[in-house]
User: Fold this.
Amino acid sequence: MAELVFTPYKASSQCLLCRGTKMLCGRSYCPILARSSALAKSVEAVTGLNLDGLTPPSLFVGRYGYPKVYAGPLLLPPRQDAAVYDSPDLWQNISIFDLIAMRSSLIRGKYPVSVRRPEGRMVDYIQELALAPVPAEVEAVFEKEPRGTIALDEDVQPMGPSAELKDLKVYGVKGDRTAEAVTSDTDLDATHGMLELYSRGLSVYRIQKILSAGLLGVKKDRKLVPTRWAITAVDDTTSKALLERAKEFPEVSEYSLYVSESMDNTYMVLLMPGKWEYELVEAWYPGSTWNAFGSSVEIYSSYEAYQGRKTYAEIGGCYYAGRLAVVEALMRLRRQARVVILREAREGYILPVGVWHVRENVRRALSGQPMKFSTLGEALEAIGNRGTVSLRDWISHSRILFDSLHRKTLLDYT
Assistant:
Protein backbone atom coordinates (compact mmCIF):
# COMPACT_ATOMS: atom_id res chain seq x y z
CA MET A 1 0.00 0.00 0.00
CA ALA A 2 1.29 3.47 -0.92
CA GLU A 3 2.38 5.81 1.86
CA LEU A 4 -0.58 7.52 3.52
CA VAL A 5 -0.78 10.79 5.41
CA PHE A 6 -3.23 11.02 8.29
CA THR A 7 -5.60 13.93 7.53
CA PRO A 8 -8.61 13.71 9.86
CA TYR A 9 -10.01 17.15 9.02
CA LYS A 10 -8.93 17.61 5.41
CA ALA A 11 -11.66 18.18 2.82
CA SER A 12 -14.32 18.59 5.49
CA SER A 13 -16.91 21.26 4.77
CA GLN A 14 -18.32 23.74 7.26
CA CYS A 15 -21.68 22.00 6.94
CA LEU A 16 -20.33 18.77 8.44
CA LEU A 17 -19.11 20.72 11.45
CA CYS A 18 -22.18 22.94 11.79
CA ARG A 19 -25.10 20.62 10.92
CA GLY A 20 -27.53 23.47 11.17
CA THR A 21 -26.58 24.50 14.71
CA LYS A 22 -23.68 26.97 14.66
CA MET A 23 -24.38 29.00 11.47
CA LEU A 24 -20.70 28.87 10.50
CA CYS A 25 -21.60 30.10 7.01
CA GLY A 26 -22.64 33.45 8.47
CA ARG A 27 -26.27 33.20 7.41
CA SER A 28 -29.17 33.73 9.80
CA TYR A 29 -30.69 30.42 8.69
CA CYS A 30 -29.40 27.04 7.53
CA PRO A 31 -29.87 26.65 3.74
CA ILE A 32 -29.62 22.86 4.05
CA LEU A 33 -32.42 22.67 6.62
CA ALA A 34 -34.44 25.09 4.50
CA ARG A 35 -33.91 22.79 1.50
CA SER A 36 -34.83 19.75 3.57
CA SER A 37 -38.02 21.35 4.84
CA ALA A 38 -39.04 22.16 1.28
CA LEU A 39 -38.50 18.51 0.32
CA ALA A 40 -40.53 17.26 3.29
CA LYS A 41 -43.73 19.27 3.10
CA SER A 42 -45.91 18.64 6.10
CA VAL A 43 -49.29 16.97 5.79
CA GLU A 44 -52.29 18.88 7.03
CA ALA A 45 -52.92 16.73 10.09
CA VAL A 46 -55.21 19.18 11.91
CA THR A 47 -57.72 21.76 10.79
CA GLY A 48 -59.30 24.20 13.19
CA LEU A 49 -58.24 25.13 16.69
CA ASN A 50 -59.24 21.92 18.50
CA LEU A 51 -57.67 18.49 18.61
CA ASP A 52 -59.10 15.50 20.44
CA GLY A 53 -56.46 12.86 20.03
CA LEU A 54 -53.45 11.16 21.57
CA THR A 55 -49.84 11.65 22.53
CA PRO A 56 -47.48 8.63 22.06
CA PRO A 57 -46.60 10.00 24.80
CA SER A 58 -44.05 12.52 23.63
CA LEU A 59 -42.84 16.00 24.52
CA PHE A 60 -40.44 18.59 23.22
CA VAL A 61 -38.51 21.31 25.03
CA GLY A 62 -36.93 23.89 22.75
CA ARG A 63 -33.60 25.64 23.18
CA TYR A 64 -34.03 28.95 21.36
CA GLY A 65 -34.29 31.86 23.78
CA TYR A 66 -32.89 29.77 26.64
CA PRO A 67 -33.61 30.00 29.60
CA LYS A 68 -37.07 31.04 28.37
CA VAL A 69 -38.19 28.44 25.87
CA TYR A 70 -41.24 26.78 24.38
CA ALA A 71 -42.20 23.37 25.73
CA GLY A 72 -45.13 21.06 25.28
CA PRO A 73 -46.43 17.67 24.13
CA LEU A 74 -46.44 16.20 20.63
CA LEU A 75 -50.02 15.43 19.63
CA LEU A 76 -51.75 13.49 16.88
CA PRO A 77 -55.26 12.50 15.82
CA PRO A 78 -56.50 9.15 17.18
CA ARG A 79 -54.29 6.24 16.06
CA GLN A 80 -54.35 2.61 17.15
CA ASP A 81 -50.57 2.45 16.85
CA ALA A 82 -49.81 5.80 18.48
CA ALA A 83 -46.85 4.45 20.46
CA VAL A 84 -44.81 3.70 17.33
CA TYR A 85 -44.81 7.40 16.39
CA ASP A 86 -42.20 8.08 19.07
CA SER A 87 -40.38 4.74 19.35
CA PRO A 88 -37.16 4.84 17.29
CA ASP A 89 -36.28 1.31 18.39
CA LEU A 90 -39.23 0.16 16.23
CA TRP A 91 -38.16 2.05 13.09
CA GLN A 92 -35.45 -0.28 11.82
CA ASN A 93 -36.97 -1.03 8.41
CA ILE A 94 -38.75 2.26 7.74
CA SER A 95 -37.88 4.36 4.69
CA ILE A 96 -36.89 7.98 5.06
CA PHE A 97 -40.09 9.24 3.41
CA ASP A 98 -42.34 6.88 5.38
CA LEU A 99 -40.71 8.22 8.54
CA ILE A 100 -41.31 11.80 7.44
CA ALA A 101 -44.92 11.01 6.58
CA MET A 102 -45.46 9.43 9.99
CA ARG A 103 -43.71 12.06 12.07
CA SER A 104 -45.31 14.95 10.17
CA SER A 105 -48.61 13.91 11.78
CA LEU A 106 -47.23 14.88 15.18
CA ILE A 107 -48.30 18.42 16.05
CA ARG A 108 -46.06 20.23 18.49
CA GLY A 109 -48.17 22.00 21.07
CA LYS A 110 -46.04 24.66 22.71
CA TYR A 111 -46.22 26.95 25.68
CA PRO A 112 -43.67 29.52 26.94
CA VAL A 113 -41.89 28.42 30.12
CA SER A 114 -38.80 29.28 32.14
CA VAL A 115 -36.53 26.25 32.39
CA ARG A 116 -35.26 27.37 35.81
CA ARG A 117 -38.71 27.70 37.31
CA PRO A 118 -40.72 24.84 35.81
CA GLU A 119 -44.14 25.33 37.32
CA GLY A 120 -47.79 25.58 36.34
CA ARG A 121 -50.41 23.25 34.93
CA MET A 122 -48.70 22.90 31.55
CA VAL A 123 -45.45 21.79 33.17
CA ASP A 124 -47.41 19.33 35.32
CA TYR A 125 -48.86 17.78 32.15
CA ILE A 126 -45.44 17.58 30.53
CA GLN A 127 -44.01 15.81 33.55
CA GLU A 128 -46.92 13.37 33.76
CA LEU A 129 -46.41 12.45 30.12
CA ALA A 130 -42.66 12.04 30.57
CA LEU A 131 -43.33 9.33 33.16
CA ALA A 132 -46.05 7.57 31.16
CA PRO A 133 -45.06 4.31 29.41
CA VAL A 134 -48.11 4.19 27.09
CA PRO A 135 -50.16 6.67 25.00
CA ALA A 136 -52.54 9.07 26.71
CA GLU A 137 -55.65 10.91 25.50
CA VAL A 138 -55.50 14.66 25.04
CA GLU A 139 -57.81 17.58 24.35
CA ALA A 140 -55.95 20.57 22.98
CA VAL A 141 -57.09 24.06 22.06
CA PHE A 142 -54.63 26.10 19.97
CA GLU A 143 -54.25 29.86 19.76
CA LYS A 144 -53.98 29.50 15.96
CA GLU A 145 -54.29 26.59 13.54
CA PRO A 146 -51.08 24.51 13.41
CA ARG A 147 -49.28 25.44 10.22
CA GLY A 148 -45.81 25.33 8.77
CA THR A 149 -43.36 22.83 7.39
CA ILE A 150 -42.05 19.78 9.18
CA ALA A 151 -39.31 20.54 11.70
CA LEU A 152 -36.00 18.79 10.91
CA ASP A 153 -32.90 18.56 13.09
CA GLU A 154 -29.64 16.62 13.14
CA ASP A 155 -30.24 15.33 16.68
CA VAL A 156 -34.01 15.20 17.17
CA GLN A 157 -36.60 13.12 15.34
CA PRO A 158 -38.69 15.09 12.79
CA MET A 159 -41.89 16.79 13.97
CA GLY A 160 -44.91 18.27 12.25
CA PRO A 161 -46.03 21.91 12.42
CA SER A 162 -46.42 23.70 15.74
CA ALA A 163 -48.94 25.97 17.41
CA GLU A 164 -49.12 27.69 20.76
CA LEU A 165 -51.53 26.06 23.19
CA LYS A 166 -54.44 27.98 24.66
CA ASP A 167 -55.62 25.03 26.75
CA LEU A 168 -54.69 21.40 27.26
CA LYS A 169 -56.26 18.48 29.10
CA VAL A 170 -54.67 15.06 29.47
CA TYR A 171 -56.58 11.89 30.37
CA GLY A 172 -55.75 8.30 31.09
CA VAL A 173 -52.11 8.80 32.02
CA LYS A 174 -50.80 5.57 33.51
CA GLY A 175 -48.01 5.87 36.01
CA ASP A 176 -44.79 3.89 35.96
CA ARG A 177 -43.69 2.80 39.41
CA THR A 178 -40.10 2.26 38.33
CA ALA A 179 -39.74 5.75 36.92
CA GLU A 180 -41.67 7.35 39.76
CA ALA A 181 -39.51 5.63 42.39
CA VAL A 182 -36.38 7.23 40.93
CA THR A 183 -37.79 10.66 40.12
CA SER A 184 -39.38 11.01 43.55
CA ASP A 185 -35.90 10.85 45.15
CA THR A 186 -35.05 14.55 45.29
CA ASP A 187 -31.68 13.88 46.97
CA LEU A 188 -30.39 11.91 43.96
CA ASP A 189 -28.35 13.88 41.44
CA ALA A 190 -29.28 13.79 37.75
CA THR A 191 -26.35 11.61 36.69
CA HIS A 192 -27.15 8.87 39.16
CA GLY A 193 -30.84 9.25 38.36
CA MET A 194 -30.20 8.54 34.67
CA LEU A 195 -28.03 5.55 35.49
CA GLU A 196 -30.57 4.14 37.93
CA LEU A 197 -33.35 4.38 35.34
CA TYR A 198 -31.14 2.71 32.73
CA SER A 199 -30.17 -0.08 35.14
CA ARG A 200 -33.87 -0.70 35.79
CA GLY A 201 -34.51 -1.31 32.12
CA LEU A 202 -35.92 2.00 30.87
CA SER A 203 -34.96 2.80 27.29
CA VAL A 204 -32.76 5.79 26.60
CA TYR A 205 -35.71 7.34 24.77
CA ARG A 206 -37.81 7.37 27.93
CA ILE A 207 -34.89 8.60 30.05
CA GLN A 208 -34.38 11.48 27.61
CA LYS A 209 -37.98 12.59 28.14
CA ILE A 210 -37.73 12.31 31.92
CA LEU A 211 -34.54 14.39 31.99
CA SER A 212 -35.97 16.94 29.57
CA ALA A 213 -39.11 17.34 31.71
CA GLY A 214 -37.03 18.40 34.73
CA LEU A 215 -37.69 15.28 36.79
CA LEU A 216 -34.10 14.35 37.64
CA GLY A 217 -31.60 15.90 40.00
CA VAL A 218 -31.46 17.32 43.49
CA LYS A 219 -34.66 19.24 44.15
CA LYS A 220 -33.15 22.73 44.17
CA ASP A 221 -31.30 22.07 40.89
CA ARG A 222 -34.16 20.59 38.86
CA LYS A 223 -35.01 22.36 35.62
CA LEU A 224 -36.29 21.63 32.15
CA VAL A 225 -33.63 20.51 29.70
CA PRO A 226 -33.93 21.25 25.96
CA THR A 227 -34.67 17.99 24.16
CA ARG A 228 -31.61 18.21 21.95
CA TRP A 229 -29.31 18.54 24.97
CA ALA A 230 -31.11 15.80 26.89
CA ILE A 231 -30.56 13.28 24.09
CA THR A 232 -26.79 13.71 24.11
CA ALA A 233 -26.62 13.94 27.91
CA VAL A 234 -28.27 10.53 28.29
CA ASP A 235 -26.09 8.90 25.61
CA ASP A 236 -22.92 10.39 27.07
CA THR A 237 -23.71 9.66 30.72
CA THR A 238 -24.84 6.06 30.26
CA SER A 239 -22.04 5.11 27.86
CA LYS A 240 -19.37 6.55 30.17
CA ALA A 241 -20.68 4.56 33.12
CA LEU A 242 -20.86 1.32 31.13
CA LEU A 243 -17.42 1.96 29.70
CA GLU A 244 -15.79 2.06 33.13
CA ARG A 245 -16.99 -1.50 33.62
CA ALA A 246 -16.11 -2.63 30.09
CA LYS A 247 -12.51 -1.48 30.56
CA GLU A 248 -12.12 -4.22 33.18
CA PHE A 249 -12.84 -6.95 30.61
CA PRO A 250 -10.15 -8.71 28.54
CA GLU A 251 -9.50 -7.51 25.00
CA VAL A 252 -11.08 -9.11 21.94
CA SER A 253 -8.68 -11.56 20.28
CA GLU A 254 -9.68 -11.12 16.63
CA TYR A 255 -10.97 -8.57 14.14
CA SER A 256 -14.77 -8.51 13.78
CA LEU A 257 -16.68 -6.51 11.19
CA TYR A 258 -20.42 -5.80 11.64
CA VAL A 259 -22.60 -4.13 8.99
CA SER A 260 -26.02 -2.45 8.86
CA GLU A 261 -27.84 -0.72 5.98
CA SER A 262 -30.65 1.84 6.29
CA MET A 263 -31.97 4.90 4.42
CA ASP A 264 -29.08 4.78 1.91
CA ASN A 265 -26.56 4.67 4.77
CA THR A 266 -24.03 1.91 5.36
CA TYR A 267 -22.63 1.45 8.86
CA MET A 268 -19.52 -0.72 9.25
CA VAL A 269 -18.39 -1.36 12.84
CA LEU A 270 -14.90 -2.82 13.28
CA LEU A 271 -13.82 -4.30 16.63
CA MET A 272 -10.04 -4.65 16.92
CA PRO A 273 -7.75 -6.19 19.58
CA GLY A 274 -6.43 -3.64 22.06
CA LYS A 275 -7.48 -1.47 24.94
CA TRP A 276 -10.46 0.84 24.51
CA GLU A 277 -10.32 3.44 21.77
CA TYR A 278 -13.27 4.72 19.80
CA GLU A 279 -13.77 6.63 16.60
CA LEU A 280 -16.67 7.58 14.35
CA VAL A 281 -15.75 8.40 10.75
CA GLU A 282 -18.48 9.71 8.46
CA ALA A 283 -18.32 10.03 4.67
CA TRP A 284 -21.01 12.22 3.11
CA TYR A 285 -21.67 11.94 -0.61
CA PRO A 286 -22.62 14.92 -2.80
CA GLY A 287 -26.37 15.41 -2.54
CA SER A 288 -26.61 13.84 0.92
CA THR A 289 -27.92 15.90 3.83
CA TRP A 290 -24.78 17.65 5.09
CA ASN A 291 -23.06 17.70 1.70
CA ALA A 292 -26.11 18.86 -0.21
CA PHE A 293 -24.28 21.36 -2.40
CA GLY A 294 -20.89 19.62 -2.63
CA SER A 295 -19.17 18.05 -5.61
CA SER A 296 -17.04 15.42 -3.85
CA VAL A 297 -17.26 13.08 -0.86
CA GLU A 298 -16.61 14.90 2.43
CA ILE A 299 -15.14 12.92 5.35
CA TYR A 300 -14.94 13.87 9.00
CA SER A 301 -14.04 12.00 12.19
CA SER A 302 -14.14 12.25 15.98
CA TYR A 303 -11.96 10.13 18.26
CA GLU A 304 -11.21 9.28 21.86
CA ALA A 305 -8.33 7.42 23.46
CA TYR A 306 -8.52 5.16 26.52
CA GLN A 307 -8.87 8.15 28.86
CA GLY A 308 -11.84 9.59 26.92
CA ARG A 309 -12.50 13.09 25.58
CA LYS A 310 -12.33 16.46 27.33
CA THR A 311 -14.08 18.40 24.56
CA TYR A 312 -17.38 17.98 22.75
CA ALA A 313 -17.06 15.72 19.71
CA GLU A 314 -16.68 17.54 16.39
CA ILE A 315 -19.30 15.31 14.76
CA GLY A 316 -21.81 16.10 17.52
CA GLY A 317 -24.56 13.96 18.99
CA CYS A 318 -24.09 11.09 16.50
CA TYR A 319 -20.74 10.36 18.15
CA TYR A 320 -22.29 9.74 21.58
CA ALA A 321 -25.25 7.79 20.19
CA GLY A 322 -22.85 5.45 18.39
CA ARG A 323 -20.62 5.12 21.45
CA LEU A 324 -23.54 4.00 23.61
CA ALA A 325 -24.50 1.29 21.10
CA VAL A 326 -20.88 0.09 20.97
CA VAL A 327 -20.41 -0.07 24.73
CA GLU A 328 -23.71 -1.90 25.17
CA ALA A 329 -22.39 -4.58 22.81
CA LEU A 330 -19.05 -4.80 24.63
CA MET A 331 -20.93 -5.34 27.87
CA ARG A 332 -22.77 -8.28 26.29
CA LEU A 333 -19.50 -9.70 24.94
CA ARG A 334 -17.71 -8.98 28.23
CA ARG A 335 -14.77 -7.63 26.23
CA GLN A 336 -13.09 -4.33 25.49
CA ALA A 337 -11.75 -3.31 22.08
CA ARG A 338 -10.52 -0.61 19.79
CA VAL A 339 -13.63 0.36 17.82
CA VAL A 340 -14.10 2.20 14.54
CA ILE A 341 -17.51 3.03 13.08
CA LEU A 342 -17.37 3.85 9.38
CA ARG A 343 -20.53 5.51 8.07
CA GLU A 344 -21.32 6.13 4.41
CA ALA A 345 -24.22 8.54 3.88
CA ARG A 346 -25.14 8.47 0.21
CA GLU A 347 -27.35 10.52 -2.11
CA GLY A 348 -30.61 8.98 -0.92
CA TYR A 349 -30.11 10.31 2.62
CA ILE A 350 -31.42 13.79 1.85
CA LEU A 351 -33.11 14.71 5.15
CA PRO A 352 -31.80 14.73 8.74
CA VAL A 353 -33.82 12.33 10.90
CA GLY A 354 -32.02 12.47 14.27
CA VAL A 355 -29.19 10.67 16.03
CA TRP A 356 -31.45 7.71 16.78
CA HIS A 357 -30.52 6.56 13.27
CA VAL A 358 -26.88 6.10 14.28
CA ARG A 359 -27.74 4.54 17.64
CA GLU A 360 -30.20 2.01 16.25
CA ASN A 361 -28.15 1.05 13.20
CA VAL A 362 -25.02 0.45 15.25
CA ARG A 363 -27.13 -1.55 17.70
CA ARG A 364 -28.58 -3.58 14.83
CA ALA A 365 -25.17 -4.18 13.27
CA LEU A 366 -23.67 -5.35 16.56
CA SER A 367 -26.59 -7.68 17.27
CA GLY A 368 -25.90 -9.61 14.07
CA GLN A 369 -23.24 -12.12 13.12
CA PRO A 370 -19.90 -10.51 12.27
CA MET A 371 -17.31 -11.34 9.65
CA LYS A 372 -14.20 -12.45 11.56
CA PHE A 373 -10.57 -12.07 10.55
CA SER A 374 -7.21 -12.95 12.04
CA THR A 375 -5.42 -9.88 10.64
CA LEU A 376 -6.18 -6.20 10.12
CA GLY A 377 -5.31 -6.53 6.44
CA GLU A 378 -8.07 -9.07 5.92
CA ALA A 379 -10.58 -6.87 7.75
CA LEU A 380 -9.61 -3.82 5.70
CA GLU A 381 -9.97 -5.79 2.48
CA ALA A 382 -13.53 -6.69 3.50
CA ILE A 383 -14.25 -3.02 4.27
CA GLY A 384 -12.91 -2.01 0.87
CA ASN A 385 -15.11 -4.59 -0.85
CA ARG A 386 -18.24 -3.71 1.14
CA GLY A 387 -18.37 0.06 0.92
CA THR A 388 -17.90 2.53 -1.93
CA VAL A 389 -15.51 4.95 -0.21
CA SER A 390 -11.95 4.03 -1.08
CA LEU A 391 -9.98 2.16 1.56
CA ARG A 392 -7.24 4.75 1.23
CA ASP A 393 -9.68 7.53 2.20
CA TRP A 394 -10.96 5.60 5.21
CA ILE A 395 -7.44 4.98 6.49
CA SER A 396 -6.21 8.54 5.89
CA HIS A 397 -9.15 9.96 7.89
CA SER A 398 -9.17 7.42 10.72
CA ARG A 399 -6.67 7.86 13.52
CA ILE A 400 -7.16 4.30 14.76
CA LEU A 401 -6.77 2.65 11.34
CA PHE A 402 -3.83 4.87 10.42
CA ASP A 403 -2.04 4.22 13.71
CA SER A 404 -2.66 0.49 13.45
CA LEU A 405 -0.94 0.38 10.07
CA HIS A 406 1.85 2.91 10.55
CA ARG A 407 2.79 3.23 14.20
CA LYS A 408 4.34 0.77 16.58
CA THR A 409 3.79 0.58 20.33
CA LEU A 410 6.29 -0.34 23.05
CA LEU A 411 4.85 -3.85 23.01
CA ASP A 412 6.15 -4.32 19.46
CA TYR A 413 9.71 -4.08 20.77
CA THR A 414 9.40 -6.44 23.75
